[in-house]
Structures are given as structure tokens and as C-alpha cells.
Recover the amino acids of this structure.
């Protein structure tokens, strides 16, 4: 049986990515996705991936170009400081960078280096890794809009981590054409752990939209100091998009912009409850044509 599965996967891998994506999605979700009239959040993302609808908004997924978009929407004050942009790591003068920073590539995910103490950084190894990333394509073939992004290296201000060594709380606001629907809070993340998730309404009510797996936490999160501002900014930045996830970090002074994601989890949304996926799908349908 295992040999048959392995042989089937090898055959499937020879086919166009659209076919692989369709088959994998159908197997994973135990349903044939509706391309003509998506029924939920997951199917909207699946359809738009298949049809390449996000190519026209690829600049929003570009971690460098999106900064211009945020500024054009009048929100330049929520951007982190930018220390430099390069197309080759060998020309970076690390002596000119501050003691702490975040350096990353703009065209994919999981291509970032957090530097807490520059004096301990292996500069040559860092340059080698960054140049390797510049030549690396986005690994998820059905997220075709990432292939439209010119690979660059960017260095930004480091958003300070928490005292316990975990990364700062990440507020991921899922929106439908300018309307925040729910807030996915990610916390207790470290370099070794993906952390925990809790989902709240814009009124900060726990919606219990996370399934009971390793992402689940029974803990409650404190309401962020700048929740009102984050909801306002998420609305501004997602207006005109059928759906988008807008990420923020909250600080004592102000919220800071993280990124805009057009295809959350590639549409799999595996740790979301069916209710969460259905609710978001309805909101997309209701709000997509509103001015």
C-alpha cells in the first residue's frame, strides 16, 4: 500500500502544479473545491491561487514594495526603520548597521535573520546565506504571485522580543474589503516553537476558532493597548481587496506594521475551525462589492 502511495505521488509530481494542488486540496479537505462559487475562506484562496488572481497585487506580498503602499495610504508612521536595501549581500557594509537589526529577503517566507548582538554575528556566513536565499524561489508553487517579486535583501529595525525570550505578540487581522473580521493572536513563539494561537473578535471576545491541536491555547491574551488603531489601519490597508491578512506588533508607543498576506496558510487553514472558515467566507461574499 505504501509503495502504491509513493508511486502515485511520483506520478502526481510530474503533472502541472494546478493538478497537484487540486488533488491535494480535495484529499486534505475531503471535498471538491468550487471554483465558480467558493463556499468558504479556504475555497476563495484556493480559487484565486489557481487562477493567478493575486499576481496584480504581488507588490503587497513584497516585504520591500509594501512599505511604499503603506506610506501611500498615509500610514508611514507605523513602519519600522529601514536601514538598507541590496541585491547582493557582498555589498552590505555591516559596520554601518546598528547593534541590533532584522535582515531578510523580501520575496518569500522563513528567510530572515534576527540579530540581537552584531558583535557575535558571523558576517561572512550571513552574506553567504543571504545570497543563497536571493537565488531561492518561493517554495510553494501555487502561490504564483511570489514569483513576480524581484528578490532583494532588506534590513529593518528590530522589534524587541519579550523578556522570556519569545518573539513579540503578533496580531494578524483577517479582513474582507476593509472590514476586520477576526484577529489571530500568535504568541509564545521562539526559534524552536511555532507558538500558540487564539482568535478574537474586533470587540476582543474569544471566538474559539482554533482547533484543539498543538497550536491551541486555553490561555487568554490581554487586549492590546492600540487595538482600536490596529483595526483602523487594517481597514485602510485592506480596502479594495476581497480578503487579506494584515499583521501588526503592538508597542508602548504605537502599533508597528508587519506584513500583508494575500494567501493565509496557502488556503489550507488547517488549525482554523470549520466555523471560522465559513464565517470568513460569508463576510467575503457580503463585502466584496462594497465601495
Amino acid at each position: 500500500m505504501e509503495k502504491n502511495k509513493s508511486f502515485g505521488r511520483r506520478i502526481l509530481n510530474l503533472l502541472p502544479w494546478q493538478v497537484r494542488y487540486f488533488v491535494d486540496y480535495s484529499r486534505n479537505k475531503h471535498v471538491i473545491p468550487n471554483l465558480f462559487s467558493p463556499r468558504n475562506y479556504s475555497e476563495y484562496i484556493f480559487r484565486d491561487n489557481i487562477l493567478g488572481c493575486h499576481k496584480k497585487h504581488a507588490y503587497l506580498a513584497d516585504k520591500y514594495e509594501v512599505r511604499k503602499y503603506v506610506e501611500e495610504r498615509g500610514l508611514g508612521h507605523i513602519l519600522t526603520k529601514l536601514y538598507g536595501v541590496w541585491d547582493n549581500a557582498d555589498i552590505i557594509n555591516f559596520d554601518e548597521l546598528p547593534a541590533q537589526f532584522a535582515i531578510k529577503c523580501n520575496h518569500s517566507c522563513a528567510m530572515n535573520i534576527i540579530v540581537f548582538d552584531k558583535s557575535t554575528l558571523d558576517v561572512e556566513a550571513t552574506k553567504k546565506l543571504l545570497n543563497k536565499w536571493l537565488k531561492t524561489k518561493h517554495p510553494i508553487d501555487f502561490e504564483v504571485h511570489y514569483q513576480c517579486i524581484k528578490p532583494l535583501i532588506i534590513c529593518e529595525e528590530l522589534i524587541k522580543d519579550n523578556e522570556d525570550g519569545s518573539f513579540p505578540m503578533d496580531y494578524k487581522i483577517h479582513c474582507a474589503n476593509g472590514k476586520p473580521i477576526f484577529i489571530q493572536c500568535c504568541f509564545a513563539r521562539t526559534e524552536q516553537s511555532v507558538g500558540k494561537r487564539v482568535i478574537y473578535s474586533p470587540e476582543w471576545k474569544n471566538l474559539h476558532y482554533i482547533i484543539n491541536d498543538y497550536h491551541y491555547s486555553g490561555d487568554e491574551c490581554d487586549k492590546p493597548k492600540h487595538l482600536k488603531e490596529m483595526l483602523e489601519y487594517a481597514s485602510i490597508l485592506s480596502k479594495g481587496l476581497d480578503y487579506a491578512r494584515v499583521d501588526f506588533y503592538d508597542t508602548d508607543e504605537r502599533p508597528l506594521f508587519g506584513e500583508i498576506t494575500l494567501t493565509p496558510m496557502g488556503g489550507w487553514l488547517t488549525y482554523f475551525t470549520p466555523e471560522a472558515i465559513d464565517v470568513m467566507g460569508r463576510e467575503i461574499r457580503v463585502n466584496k462589492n462594497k465601495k
